[in-house]
Please model this.
Amino acid sequence: MRPVKKLVVLAAFLLTALPASATTSRILAPMDWWPVWSPDGSHVAFTRVYSNHMELWTLDLRTHRIVHVGTNAGQLGPSWSGDGTRLAYAASGALYTASPGGTQKVRYPAPVRSLAPAWRPGAASLAYLTTKGAANTDLWVAGSLWATNAIGTPAWSPDGAQLAFQRDDGIYLATGPQAERRLVSVASPGAPAWSHDGTQLAYVAAGRLFTVAVPGGTTRLVAPAPRTQAPPSWSRDDAHLTTSGAWSPVADILVSSGGRPSCPGHVVLREGARALTGSCLVLGTARADVIEGTPLWGDVIQAGAGADRVHANDGHTDRVDCGPGRDVVWADRTDRLAHCEVVHR
Model:
């Protein structure tokens, strides 16, 4: 395997869905992506993507309360324990576990530069990747090296006996240290996802969604699939697959990312047309910011202090409060403005 290609895939895993302007000083509307259900269906973990970092949040479906759990420059890769009482994630090269409410946070005993945790069903151990320099990405389970040159996010079988993972040339299964076999040969596959009965794996390759039988290795084309860094999701009866959201493990409920009815440019978690998270706000800081509205209507931009530059001239009606400081705003004639010193319409 060529390490350069492997690291390109790893970089895409860490930074996917960040807009091109996210590496600049611009402030954009946060976006809620990659829902992951707890095994009992009571919580959904998701990643909130900001201009220059990502945050892990949990949504309690019973109270509709959302809680901040962790922060990282790239994807945090949340994974639930089998009983749903703990959540593992990666941040700043370390692995952590926490309660669904973000409390009782503990650092997991893994080497530095670890990422992509996957909680083993029925056990307290995690599978995870580690990186060493520019030529090595290893797959570990609780301190034991299981495989080398792995990429993406590993996935445990429902019984915890097998671990599926990606390489550039296919989907592999491992049962222990250096005990592995290639299940299917395919170029640059996406992350695998097990069916609930443990007899199939789903994955995306070349823009198409496939399933592969375990252990036989017989593949089946399911449907075209959009480019995504999230693994496919199986419905609880294994009758349906999606790459655009996550099925509840206990009910016929699909949570996906999409716009809010009042401000469709803001990406939030939704159940059907009902928004579960997010708001219409784009918040600035106390410093001088460059703030971008979304391309659609309904933005509520609060620039905060500092000499800000606000871009809201998108052909739709928005609300802008420039706040303290000498601010410059580019706006549409229908926009409602407050405390903006220099206005370009």
About this structure: The longest strand covers residues 65-72. The longest helix spans residues 3-15.
